[in-house]
Structures are given as structure tokens and as C-alpha cells.
Write a structure and sequence with these properties.
The protein is α+β, with helices and mostly antiparallel strands and 585 residues long. It is 34% helix and 20% strand. The chain has 18 helices and 22 strands.
Amino acid sequence: MTIDYKKTLNLLDTSFPMRGDLARREPAMLKAWQERNLYRKIRAISQGRPKFILHDGPPYANGDIHIGHAVNKILKDIIIKSKTLSGFDAPYVPGWDCHGLPIEHQIEKKYGKHLPADQVRKLCRAFAQEQVDRQKADFMRLGVLGDWEHPYLTMNYAIEAGIIRALGKIFRNGHLYQGQKPVNWCIDCGSALAEAEVEYENKRSPAIDVGFEIIGRKDVCHPLAGVMAAEIPAGTRIFAVIWTTTPWTLPANQAVCVHPEFDYSLVSTSRGWLLLASELTNACLARYQLEGRVVATCKGLALEGLSLQHPFADRIVKVICGRHVTLEAGTGLVHTAPAHGLDDYFIGQQYGLPSDSPVKGDGKFSEQISLVGGMFVWKANDVVIDTLRSSGHLLHAEEIEHSYPHCWRHKTPIIFRATPQWFIGMQRQTAESQSFGESLRDLALRAVELTRFYPAWGRARLEAMIGNRPDWCISRQRNWGVPMTFFIHKETHALHPRTPELLEKVASLVEQQGIEAWFSLDATELLGEEAQHYQKLTDTLDVWFDSGTTHETVLKQNIQLRHPADLYLEGSDQHRGWFQSSLLT
């Protein structure tokens, strides 16, 4: 006998279908939520409850959403819905980052690079809005509830004006300065890059050891003889040997740097007498395939001030001392080009060395530079190496693979290049904290201590990044961005004495007409007769400044929200991006 066991089970009746069939049912469910205006109903019911504010870090308005976007929005939605069910008023106002190079790059690819700037801005604004609409539809399809009808866009006129006002606050607090120092420069972008716009990839580079001849009298009174207590035969050629993986920077060399406390040896070889760090002498001789005898030693400090002949330029350079020199690789003597490296720049400032870059924004040397004038930097490597080899200054050359900074958009190697830029100084004290002797770095690290991190290791990650980061270069040489609305004196390059007042006037114009108001502004409208002595700054702000100041332009302005937010939730990559720019601003 066959038994029908189904009849022996006491099952509840349910209206749930046997199959999920979500591909068909989900769109109908989401449509019903929208038709019922579910988000607004939740807001109405939640009025009077304690607030919980999750501030949405704005995704960039370029390209379709991907799995990273989905993880981001779904995690936020889980938290918002959980807090709502826990008795909080938890609004969710999504936003988008709308300015910056990637959008401008899309317009250049489609229309070419020679459009008028005002046309570029018009096309960029339209393109960004198209991208927002596409991404918004996909985010809503994920079932994320939020104020999708009124998102915040960094290209909204009111927010663009707010960004300018935030810049004004930072200026009034004394953080802002103009300087010519090396910045991350993408040749393809034609612009400075933020730290967060740089990623590291392996690159093959030429690594060379180069001799800088120590010059002075050609007899036994050689200038090194007294320093190292060595008898130096007349006519002996002595070379201070440097090691570098960027031969193209040698035209900008202004000094050779030693560590004041390291031991240095003078080594007699068949290629002349070589000055090397004592700890690296054996490794260097093996690399050069030379036999050598140590003639004398001294501390690096004793070498300070020695004169060296640049290996191919008609220039005398000096030995200087710096504590950034290491013994990890090379020779213990560091080729110093203040125009092409931050350590070089800072030590160069101490010694009064010039930091003008011989390399233009397109990656080519200025025409007047000897040997490599008009040449692209990477091609200059071969010319420099061949010249050193033929003159006898090249001790060794090989190719090595090493980690090197690349532009995160173009995936191409960047260079370090000194250009006039605007910086937020990490060591400059704020106006309100000068009595305590605190710098912006100090304030930021103290704020990190007061912040809760989930997971907890995020604190150490952010502390390390804030503790080590250089000054923030906030200026960019682009068309599609919030302008740095400053008037600069044509001769002294000083900011106009009424800068705070002028910033507010410009912000009011931008609030009505967008950033286009600045670019079309005739200076006489605000300066009158003074306009003949001043020029408008054409630089735009780093796009990280836009998103970083949304605590000012969104949280303090949107009536659904409040400042400060309870939670910033983003991927770990934002420890060097949005978390930092938000904290510092």
C-alpha cells in the first residue's frame, strides 16, 4: 500500500510562491515601493526620533556601477534599515562627485582636446548628469531606499559655492600657501595628482652609478686630503659616486647628499679613487667588477662643502648633509635634484638650492637645457647614460624592476616635477590653535584618537597616513573643476588684500550661475580700477577637496541631515582618499 505522507504533515498555508522568480517579481516590488513613496512615509513616521546620520561618500559620476558600488550601497542600506527598525530617524541622502579629470578626459576623447574651455565645461556638466541618472537607476534597482529625487551633486550651484566658501575658511585659518615644490605630475593628464590618485606598479628602470669628480688643486693638497687625513698623489682623480634609477633627472642635479653620521671610505681603484659609504663599499666594488683598497675614512659631516664637477653640465655642485640618506641600496651618496623629489626639495631649501624644473608639463625638457633640450624624459635616459659612458663617469648600468608610482587613470608612470602650486600645509598652525602650538597634522591626529573605527585596525592605518603625508597640493590645471577664486597681483603674485570679501562675492555669483560665473567674470566687476594690477587665478581645486568638504556643503545644509555625521562607511582605499580629505578639511 502506498502512503501519502503529505497528508500526515500539519503545514501552514502561505501566500508565498513556491519559486522566488526574482527577475520578474523584484522590479514590480521596487516599483510598488516608489509608487507608495515608501522613503517619504518612513521619514514622516520617524519624525521626533533620535537621529542617526550615515553620510554617503559620493561615488564618481563616470561609468556603470560595478560590484564595488553594489557592496558599498547595500552595506549602507542594511545599516540605515537596521537603525530605522531600532527606533532611529535614519535618513539616507545619496550623492555624486561630479568634477575632475576623468569626466574631462571622456569629453576630450569624444570631441578632441582643442575645444574652447567654456564648451568643455558645458559638455562635462551634461555628461556628468547623464552618468548620475544611469547610476541612480541601477542603485535603485538594488533595492536601496533613499532620497533619490534630491541627491546631492558636487556640481549643484549651491554646493559649488559652498566649496569656495570652505576654501575661504581654510585660507582665513592660515593653512593655505603657494609654493614651487615637486608634486606628482601625470604627463598624460597634464596636471598635478593627489596622493590618492597615485598607485604603485612594477616598472623596469635603468639603475646607474655615476662619478662626480671632486675638484680642487691637482697636487697633494687635494681638498679631500685634509678631510680624510690621506696622502693623495698629484693628479689623482677622485669621484663621489651616486646611484640613481632616474638618469633623466641628472640635468637638474644641484648637489650630492651624504648622511652626517655615516662612515665614508676613500677607495683606490683602477678607475680612480672612489668615495663610497663604508658599509656599501664591498657591494659597490663587486657591482663595478673592481678591486679596491680603502685609503682613508671619515664621517659624512666632514665632507660637507666639498666641490664637485657635474658629470656633463657646466656646473659646480656641493656635497651637502641630509638625514634622509639610507644604506638600503646604492652608494650612500644621493644625487640631489630639488625640482624632482620631495626629500631633495626640503634639503635643498636648507641649503638655498634652486628648485626650478627643467621639464615642462608635457614631459619634455625646455629647449635651452643642454644635452637633452626638447627631449621627452624617458628618452633622455639613454642620452644621459651614453654621455656618461663616453666621458668615463659611468661606473655601472643595469635594468632593475622596482615599484614605481603610476597615474591611476592612465596607468602610466608619473614624474615628480616642481611647479607653482597651492598647498594646504600639514605643519602650519591654525589661527584658532596657535596658542597651543598645534599644526594641522597635530589636530588631525588628535581627531583620529577621538574617532571610533570598525574594524579597529583602521585607526592605525589612518594615523600612519596622516603622520607621514606631505602637504596637500590642492591646485589643478584643468577646466572642469571648482575654481580657486583668487585674484593675484601681476607683479608680486600676492593675493588681493580683500581676498575673504572677494571670495564671498564670487561664491554668491556661483550660487546663482555655477562655476561658469568665475570663468566668465570680468575682474573690473569686482575690483574696479584695481583690476589692471590683478589677474584671476585659473587653477581648479583637487576633486578630493570637493568630496572632502561635503561635511560643510551637505551635512550642514540639508535639513534632513546634521553635522557631525555618526558614520562614514567606505572601502579601505578611502583611508588615503575621502577619509583623509574629509578629516583635514
